[in-house]
Structures are given as C-alpha cells and as structure tokens.
C-alpha cells in the first residue's frame, strides 16, 4: 500500500490583500510569502478607493481577518518594528485509514487473513499456557493491541518576521552573517540571505534553524517561529511502519485500537488479558493480582521489588524537592518585593518596635497586604499540587520496603513576618541577618557570623518601658514613666527609701519567742504605762456590782514624744472572794495614738478568729487568776491608751442540763446580801516601742509643697505611701481597715484636719499613677 501526498499553499489572494505579494519558489508544495513594509491600512484609505471599498469588511475591527490569530501575531510584531513577514509551509493531505481485514470479517463473514507466523505462535502455546509463555510468544512480538482506524496528515511551517531598519546596519549584519552575492546594498544582500535560508528549510532543517537563530541573536532584526502539526518531518508514507509518525494529534482525529485477544481462540483470551495486564502494569516482573478493589503485583523471586517503582518514586520525591525550592523562592521574592521593602523603610528607627507595633504598621499598609495575599495564593497552589503528589507517592509506596522521604513546608504566619522585620531591623549587621528574640531583646546569629546584632533602640510604653529615648543614644532611656527612676539608661521601679529615719518597724518577734516571753511575763516586753481609775484602786477589794472603768495610758506626747507603741498582749490579775458566784466581764477599747475616747476601737474578743482570754490560776486560796489576751504578730496593733470596762455576771449551774449559765446581778441595796468581792492586783500591757521622729516626717511632708526637684517630690510621696501602708497594716480586724495613718498625723504630728485631708488626696493621686497601684478602702477613726 502506498500513501499519497498532496501539497497546497496558504495566503491572502492578491485582490484580498493589496500589500501582499506571493512568490512561488518552484519547489512543489512550498510557498514563500513576503509582506511589504506597510502592514496596516486604515479604513479611510479603503473608503477613498472604489476598487478597495468591498474589502472594508475584511479589515474592520469586527471583520474575520481582524480576529484571526495570524493577523493578531503579525500586528504585535509590527508594533515591535518587524514590518515584513516571510512564511514557508507544506501540508500533507489527511487520510482516513481503516482496517480492511476486520471489515471483511464483519460484513462478509470471511476468515481473518492472519500471518502464518502469528498462527504458528498461537498453536505453540497449547491449551493451558502460563503467563510467561503468552508474554514471550505473543505480547513481546505483536503487542497488546492492533489498529482499527486512524487519520493521517498534517502541516509544518516556518515564519520569519524582519525589521529592515536593523537588518540594514552594516555593523550588526557583518558579524557572523553569511553574505550571498556581491551587491553593495547590505540590506538587499541580507534579504537575499533570508530567502535562501527559507528555501533550504525543508532540505536541511537543523542547519537552517541554527543559522537563523544565530542571525536573530547577533542582529535582533528577525524573529523566527516554527509551527508543526501532524506528520513532523515526513515526506512520503510507503508502508504501515511509518503510520505512528504521521498520526494527527487532535481531539477530532483519535487513534482507535482494539485488544489483540479478539483475534485469539476462546481458550486463550482470558490468559492473554491477564498476561497483558501483568506485562503492562508489572513490567513482566510479576503477576497482577486484584482483590477487594485493590490491585498489586505478585512479584517473582527475580524481582522482589516489582511493586516499588523506584524511578517513579524518585521522580515524585524530586518533584517535591522542586516544590520546596519554589516555596522558598516565593517567600524570598515576597521579602525582596518593593512592597515589603517599602514597609521596612517606613518604620521608625528612633524607638524599639515590638510585634504589636509592627502589626499595626502592617495593617495600615494595603500594598504589603495585597502582596501577602498574592503570596498566600501562590503557596496554596503549590500546597495543593504537593498534596496530590504525596497521595500518589503513598499509593506507590504502599507495598515498598522503604517509606518515602519528603518534608511538607508550612505557610509562614504573620507573626513570622513581623519577627522577620525585627530581625532585619536589629540583627542585620552581618552578611546574613540573624533571628531576633523579643523576650530577651537579643539576636541569634548564623553559625558562621560572630556578631550580627545592631543597636536596638529603647522600648517605649507603660511601666518599666521608657517614656522617651535619649537623644544622643537611642538605645538608652531618656525619661521614665511615673513610679520608675532612670538608672544607667534603664527605667527601674522606684522604691521608697528606708523608713528607719521616720518610724522603725523592723522589730517583729517570732511567734514562739513571743509566746515564751509572755508565759514568763518577761519584763523586757512590758510597756510601762500609767494606771488611771476613779472607780477603784489596784490591790483593793471592791464590790463588782457596778461597772468599773479603768485605763492604762502612756502620755507619749508629754513623756515619750520619740516613740510609738505596739501592743502584743494585755494581762490582768483578778482575785475573787471564796464561794463567790461572780464572773468578771471586760470590754477593751484601744486608742492608737491619743485623742478622745471616741477615737478608740473596740477589741472583738472571741469573735471570728480573734483570740479569747486565757485564764491561769495563781493563788488557789485567794482564788486569783491571770487573765491574758494574746494578740501576737497577727493581731498586734498600735496603742496609746487602753480602756478597760469591768462588769460582772452571776455564774450558776443548771440542774436540768448540768451546764453553767450566766445572768446579770440585780441591784443590791442591802450590803448583807452581797454576792462577793473582787480585786485587781495588776493590769499590764506587753509589747514594744518603736522609734518615731515627728520632725523628720514633717520635713518629708514639706517637700510636697516646696519640692527642690521633681525627683525629691516623687521620693517623698513614695516614702509617705510606704509609711501609710505600713501603719494601716496594723489596723484592727474588720471588714474595712481603719485609717490609723490619719490618726498618726492628727495626734502625734499635731496637723490640722484640712492638712491631713490634703496629704491623703496627694497620696491617692500619686498612687494612681504608679504601675500596678494597690488601693484599699479605709474607715474613719479619728476626727
């Protein structure tokens, strides 16, 4: 069978394109088209000529020629300066090929004209051949399919766009460009050279393309485009062996194949299909097995790794590595983009920028956000492709002895880029920038860089951060927030100076030590005070029917102006007559720093967690007991005067319940009916005295009105706040603390009420400006 070949040329007819000239070269099937320098004709020029008027529909923006792809390509080249186009092409006729042998069998019921050798190989297989025999005798010799029908034919062409202005320059055309002919016009010689090269394209394609590409690179005067469809490089088709090289690859011209098993006897078809599947799928290295929607190769002993396509796995792993490189390239391009670098330049350098501050600049920059969205879109495409490859890779490695090796990259969050900006700002003093650690304000440099950290400006903000950076050195603080003091370029919490010059408070006793001293009634912890009572005298018997009032006072302003006193315990020694049924009951009021009795607070004995009286027998004959209430370090408090109100109650035994009951005694007018007498031998206060300098505190208060410097005023306020808190800490128990500090100012410093109020207001205002201020409510005790 011999295949025919036809040739035809394409181009615009002369009457359809007035600027085109068609030149026949004499070689069958070849056409060389040369366009003139004028490629565009405006519609007005066509309207002026009656002969060209019918062609206006072809050249308008709505005409078919204007929408043609070739015209669009030509116009694009024309705008670039390539005003002339040469195109040479050849086309082979399209043939429809059908298998006549099957047509004879289907329509005329004739036997298939099979080759004798093919029939002999079928007979050699026998009745039950194994898969290896089918593969060796049939598949490897004849394949698995044969051709039913196909379409032959195609086209190939060469297009050269020429810029005659560049081609006419001797300086550019003389180097490396072959000159044909002896004409003095270099432009004509160069055009002639292009004519000859175009004419030799189908004779010596590789040499022609090599010379054309050389001219294109050397001069920049031409652009070469090669188009090939169908029978690439074939000139004739003499037999079926060349069919595969001339099949047209297009959707409408598909190759139709049929399995070879239809030509085999019935008993060989199933074995042939199994052998073909094993041959195609397992590459003759095993047998294909399918069970429960899953197929694999049962490997032969010679090929134990037939289920593991190493080449495909390696290719996919290489693809994953390429995607990782592309991923890194996208991130690097984003970092090097104009938008990212512009944001970096706009950031202020006179203060430290933490991640929050950088995020605010980031949000306000719409350009960098748009560029970041583009980065996210590109990475999502790569990630989707990577997941697809990974799924295929796991499917391939399902029955491999080794697992695939790859690493999935992760999209960098915004926090990474904010930290990256910090690293570029503060860790870029070396070739490769380091990594900035915001917690420690330091840089981690690359292993080959000794130092990468640059000057880090001071951090502005609240608390220990700087209020302003120093003008001469931005790495150090220039000023601090209230409550902090500038020390060596840093803002440190401003701590009140020691209060020992004003009030000594560091004389606490340990609980065990205090308990031991109280048991021994050690005189070293007794605060000597003055006993005053108009109702009774110490050591004398009295009738307790009526309430008795007594007090212990220190008169510190008169006798001890340099001391304040702390009470740790109160003790009374009470004696009762024999067979007395009276029980003493005492109410204790404590005045912390002096003043009237109304400025005393009531001691809540045995209420809540407050301690109760402890009674110990002293003299059984006289029925004397020591009544002691121990406040200890937990309930200790300041005292100047202790008021004791003594009354009594009758103790009786309830016969019905064997419990002791108490009731108030009736007024006795007849002394013979007295229920007993009572005597108080001692009344003592145990505690200690603290040094106190009222003049120094007055000088400290004067600094609030006449500060020498702002620092001295802040220091005085801090010391007064510390003094206030330490004094109020010894407030008696209750839901609200009592304002003992105002009592100290009022009675020991002799300040007026308005002065005390002004000082308290100043302290509250300053305390609200301090970091982490602690405010607590206090109750008024002193007027």
Automatic annotation (TrEMBL):
Keywords: Cell cycle, Glycoprotein, Growth arrest, Signal. GO terms for biological process: cellular response to retinoic acid; negative regulation of mitotic cell cycle; nervous system development; positive regulation of neuron differentiation. SMART domains: MACPF. Residues 89-281 form the MACPF domain. The keyword Cell cycle applies. It comes from the Eukaryota. GO terms for cellular component: cytoplasm; dendrite; neuronal cell body. It holds the Pfam family MACPF. Belongs to the BRINP family. This is BMP/retinoic acid-inducible neural-specific protein 2.
């Amino acid at each position: 069978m011999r295949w025919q070949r036809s040739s035809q040329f394409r181009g615009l007819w002369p009457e359809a394109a007035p600027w085109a000239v068609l030149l026949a070269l004499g070689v069958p099937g070849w056409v060389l088209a040369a366009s003139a320098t004028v490629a565009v004709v405006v519609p007005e020029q066509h309207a002026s000529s009656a002969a060209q008027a019918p062609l206006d529909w072809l050249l308008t923006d709505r005409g078919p020629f204007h929408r043609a792809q070739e015209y669009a390509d030509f116009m694009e080249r024309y705008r670039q300066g390539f005003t002339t186009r040469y195109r040479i092409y050849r086309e082979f006729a399209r043939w429809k090929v059908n298998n006549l042998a099957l047509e004879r069998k289907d329509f005329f019921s004739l036997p298939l004209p099979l080759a004798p050798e093919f029939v002999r190989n079928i007979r050699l297989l026998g009745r039950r051949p194994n898969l290896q025999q089918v593969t060796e005798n049939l598949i490897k010799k004849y394949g698995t399919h044969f051709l039913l029908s196909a379409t032959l034919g195609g086209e190939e062409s060469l297009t050269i766009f020429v810029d005659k202005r560049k081609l006419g320059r001797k300086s550019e055309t003389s180097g490396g460009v072959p000159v044909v002919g002896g004409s003095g016009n270099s432009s004509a010689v160069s055009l002639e050279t292009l004519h000859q090269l175009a004419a030799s394209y189908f004779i010596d394609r590789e040499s022609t393309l090599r010379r054309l590409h050389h001219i294109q690179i050397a001069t920049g005067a031409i652009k070469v485009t090669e188009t090939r469809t169908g029978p690439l490089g074939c000139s004739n088709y003499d037999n079926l062996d060349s069919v595969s090289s001339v099949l047209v690859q297009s959707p409408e011209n598909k190759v139709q194949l049929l399995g070879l098993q239809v030509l085999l006897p019935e008993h060989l078809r199933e074995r042939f299909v199994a052998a073909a599947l094993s041959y195609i799928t397992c590459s003759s290295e095993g047998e294909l097995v399918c069970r429960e929607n899953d197929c694999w190769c049962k490997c032969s002993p010679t090929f134990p790794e037939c289920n593991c396509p190493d080449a495909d796995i390696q290719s996919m792993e290489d693809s994953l590595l390429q995607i990782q490189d592309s991923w890194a390239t996208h991130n690097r391009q984003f970092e090097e983009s104009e938008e990212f670098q512009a944001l970096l330049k706009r950031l202020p350098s006179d203060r430290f920028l933490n991640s929050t501050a950088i995020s605010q600049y980031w949000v306000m920059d719409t350009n960098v956000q748009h560029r970041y969205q583009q980065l996210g879109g590109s990475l999502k495409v790569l990630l989707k492709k990577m997941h697809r490859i990974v799924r295929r890779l796991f499917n391939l490695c399902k029955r491999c002895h080794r697992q695939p090796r790859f690493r999935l990259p992760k999209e960098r969050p915004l926090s990474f880029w904010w930290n990256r900006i910090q690293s570029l700002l503060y860790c870029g003093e070396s070739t490769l920038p380091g990594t900035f650690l915001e917690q420690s304000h330091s840089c981690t440099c690359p292993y080959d860089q000794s130092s990468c950290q640059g000057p880090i400006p001071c951090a502005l903000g609240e608390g220990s951060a700087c209020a302003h950076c120093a003008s001469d050195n931005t790495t150090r603080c220039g000023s601090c927030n209230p409550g902090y003091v500038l020390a060596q370029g840093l803002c440190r919490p401003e701590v009140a100076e020691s209060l020992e010059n004003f009030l000594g408070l560091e004389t606490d006793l340990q609980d065990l030590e205090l308990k031991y001293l109280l048991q021994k009634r050690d005189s070293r912890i007794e605060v000597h005070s003055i006993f005053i009572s108009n109702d009774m005298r110490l050591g004398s018997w009295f009738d307790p029917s009526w309430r008795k009032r007594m007090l212990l006072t220190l008169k510190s302003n008169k006798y001890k102006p340099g001391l304040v006193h702390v009470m740790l315990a109160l003790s009374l020694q009470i004696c009762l007559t024999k067979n007395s049924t009276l029980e003493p009951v005492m109410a204790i009021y404590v005045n912390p720093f002096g003043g009237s009795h109304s400025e005393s607070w009531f001691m809540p004995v045995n209420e809540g967690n407050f301690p109760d009286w402890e009674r110990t027998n002293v003299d059984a004959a006289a029925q004397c007991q020591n009544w002691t209430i121990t406040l200890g370090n937990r309930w200790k408090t300041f005292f100047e005067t202790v008021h004791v109100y003594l009354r009594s109650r009758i103790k009786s035994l309830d016969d019905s319940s064997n419990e002791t009951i108490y009731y108030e005694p009736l007024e006795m007018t007849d002394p013979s009916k007295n229920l007993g007498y009572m005597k108080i031998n001692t009344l003592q206060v145990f505690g200690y005295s603290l040094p106190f300098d009222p003049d120094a505190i007055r000088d400290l208060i004067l600094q609030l009105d006449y500060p020498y410097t702002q620092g001295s005023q802040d220091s005085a306020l801090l010391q007064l706040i510390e003094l206030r808190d330490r004094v109020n800490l010894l407030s008696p128990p209750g839901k609200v603390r009592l304002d003992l500090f105002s009592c100290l100012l009022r009675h020991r410093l002799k300040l007026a009420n308005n002065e005390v109020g002004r000082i308290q207001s100043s302290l509250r205002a300053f305390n609200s400006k301090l970091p982490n201020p602690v405010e607590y409510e206090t109750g008024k005790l002193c007027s």
